[in-house]
Amino acid sequence: MRNVFLLLFICGQYFAAAQQIITVGTPAVSLSNVDIETKERKILTVGTGSNDLVAFNHLTQNLYVQQRGGVARQLLGMGPNGGCVDFDLIGLQDVSGTDWAHDFANEIIYSIAGQNLFKLEYKGDVPEVLIGGLDEGVGIAVDVEEGYVYWTELNLNTVNRAKLDGSGREELIRAPSGLSQFVGIALDAVNKKVYYVDKGQGKIHRMDYDGSNPEEIVSDLNDPTRIGLYAPDNKIYWISEDDEIIQQADLDGSNVSNLIDTEISMPYVLYVDPTNGDLYWAGNGFNLAKVERVQPRSGERKVLLFNLEDGFQNLSHDPINERVFLSDPNFAGGRMVSMNYDGSSPEIIGSERINGGRPYGVADGFNGYFYYVGGPGIRRINLDSKVEEDFMSMQRPVNQLEIDVESGRLYWSEANGSMGYIDLASKQSTTITSTEFVQTFALDLTNKKIYYAHGDDEQIKRMDLDGTNVEPLVSGIAKQIELDVPNDRLYWLIGPVGFDIFYTDLNGFFRTKLEGVSPSEFAILGASGSRIMLNTIAVNGNNQSASLTWTLEDDFLSGLQDGEVFSVQRQNASTLWDELGTIAFASGQGSYDFTDPQPQEGVNRYRLRYLSPDGDVQFSPVQSLDISTSTEDLSQLEAAQLDLRQGPASLQLRAERGVVDIYSVEGKLLRSFQMADPILEIATTGWERGTYVLRHRSEDGQEGAKLFTIVQ
User: How far is CA 527 from each of CA 354, 531, 622, rounded to the nearest angstrom?
Assistant: First the structure.
């Protein structure tokens, strides 16, 4: 399993490296990848908008999709299988028009809209009006080799052409009947024929490039609109809009048949790749807006982009198969969409509308199931057969699901704050806690811990997997919690109104705001990593040096080769992991040691990192060593009239924003907090009895201190 950290924005690209996040929410309703250090954002897929135009650039292998959301337009560029959306792939945010034609070799787009036919150069700023004075231009096509652009005008019911520089404009044909409506147009560059659609009379015509030899080849169609063709296969394709189907026929109009008549809704546009005959079409049906590629010879279909009705929500993922799961939050019931980590190869799973409303859940990649909340209980979908079934009824509404695949446990939390797990084999449910009011939670399966937000205390806590050994870690309201165990980080989303992400280490130290991102939802994909199989790992030392010793399990030893190395990493207040050195594996040797000659003042955290020859990253559990020796002289601090209120298990400080430090009376720094809001809650459960010093430093440099005593 790759060690990849991704956060989800409901707003790209999959990076095989740590410290990446996927986010939901910005920009618009899309799924994005963000680099934590550089804040570089790559959009994986977008959630809403109607698909107006589509084309595939066979030279660059990029798919272009023109979308409209409300009155705004956006041009998406993505890979041949979808995913990795780029809004600036060809430097155009808006290709206004009802149709377009691409000159891929010269990087030019010709588009038509209303009274104008435009020419736009890739990376250009302003489109050029190539031909004006049209009477409702609708369809457009170009033959670059012949040097002509062809188009239809709806109100005049004409087919026209001009040279690519706009000169030599001529009318090729005009409909004799006022019932006609000339719309879609396509060119057969092999046989030098123009094909055009008469929507008003339900017919398809063709003629020579110069307008001679016009003929009707297909009739009795129901609202035909767009048309495309592939001469090497002797085929034309068109959309019958009212019937919601895509049909095909031979170039002479014979052998009419349906190409696509299932899983299609409101087809709007189609495009045929002139190099291989692949057909791309886009539809904007209710809760089924998508872009799809079809291979007409085989009938194989592949969805490249889904646009759910109300965007994305309820992110989860399958780290084994590297798939993301998202749902449509529509109030009438949602649909679940699955896609690769890079946003490619999306598919709808489950029924057209997930039973019970907005679906959210978790994937069991080993056994091929997706468990989700549906109706009064928990349901599951077989990801291969797509068969849905009720898995287990619950007494109360379920808030969240997480899974421990190795142990076969499905963890749940309910609306009343209780939490437990279900044994997947026996379907027996066990309650872990009914008193901690679990609002949201995350599993640390490496260290056998549950991190959770306590709804009443407004604290983030952790406990053992059986609910014992509760430890308060961080004060504050958390809408969502995620863990990056290999990098020793606890992330949480501030809610319910704001959308800021903060993080500390797994022990709640070094609170930091993650700047530059503001999602409505996030998740970490594949961040748990594989664990180095160890019998023991230990660290001890003093302010002069720190010694690490570890012993490898036999099963792990058997897979290693001489010369493979472990790197020893250390983290302290910088929150970054530094490599101290490497130890090479020696055949038959299971025990190793390493000395850190200069440990840092304070808490030092150590771990091992192993990179296998095939790129698999593994980490050991983190071991800590506190070698703090220095103390600070607090005698000069001025006693301040701080508004410090003490409860049986917490402190509440009301003061200006700044930094709060907790010291022993001897001056040893014990804990530090960033005071981002006027009120700071500090949990004191588990603190030793005694007297402590609280020092407050405001952002303008003012500071003061106050004594308090823990008697519990």
Answer: 29, 12, 15
Q: What is the dihedral of CA 70, 74, 80, 85, to 10 degrees?
A: -100
Residue type, 65: V
How many CA atoms are closer than 13 Å to the CA of 559, on its beta-carbon side?
A: 12
Q: Which two tokens stand for residue 674?
A: 């960033």
pLDDT range class, residue 333, cuts 50, 70, 90: very low
If one counts every other C-beta atom within 10 angstroms of the C-beta of residue 392, the result is 17
- Contact predicate 32/42, CB 8 Å: yes
Burial 119-149 (b: 16+ CB within 10 A, else e): bbbeeeeebeebbeebeebbbbbbbbeeebb
Q: How far is CA 370 from the centre of its chain?
A: 18
pLDDT tens per residue across span 240-255: 998 999 999 999 999 9
Residue whose C-alpha is closest to residue 608's, from 564, 638, 650? 564
Phi, psi of 557 (to 5 degrees): -60, -40
Distance separating alpha carbons of residues 299 and 554, to the nearest angstrom: 51
* 30 residue type, one letter: S
Residue 586 CA to residue 335 CA, distance in Å, equals 53
Q: How far is CA 382 from the centre of its chain?
A: 22
Residue 224: partners with Cβ closer than 8 Å, 6 or more residues away? 183, 184, 197, 198, 199, 202, 203, 204, 238, 239, 240, 241
DSSP letter at 688 equals: P
Q: Name the residue with tokens 């024929």.
A: 193
d(CA 332, CA 197): 38
Count of CB atoms situated within 10 Å of the CB of 668: 14
Distance CA 75, CA 703 (A): 53
User: Count H helices, E strands: the chain?
Assistant: 1, 62
What's the pLDDT score for residue 320?
A: 67
Q: Nearest-CA neighbor of 377 among 403, 347, 357, 350?
A: 357
CB 97 within 8 A of CB 82: no
Distance CA 480, CA 523 (A): 9
Q: How many whole angstroms separate alpha carbon 353 and alpha carbon 606? A: 48
φ/ψ of residue 60, rounded to 5 = -105, -5
Pairing label, strands 323-327, 336-340: antiparallel
Q: How far apart are the first and last CA of the chain?
A: 45
For residues 384, 388, 393, 397, the Cα torsion angle rounded to the nearest 10 degrees is: 90
Contacts of 167 (CB under 8 A, 6+ apart): none
Q: What is the pLDDT of residues 367-417, one digit of tens each?
A: 888 888 876 788 888 887 778 888 999 888 888 899 988 788 999 998 888
The residue among 294, 300, 238, 295 whose CA lies nearest residue 269 is 238
Q: In what order do the strands lie in the sheet with 72-78?
A: 50-57, 62-69, 72-78
Dump pLDDT digits (tens) for 266-281: 888 899 999 999 999 9
- How does pLDDT run across 177-232, given as a tens digit for each residue? 778 999 999 999 999 999 999 999 999 999 999 999 999 999 999 999 999 999 99
Residue 28, CA distances (Å) to 32, 335, 681 in order: 11, 19, 34
Query: Tell me: the pLDDT tens digits for 526-579?
Result: 444 445 555 566 667 666 788 888 888 877 777 788 888 888 988 775 456 788
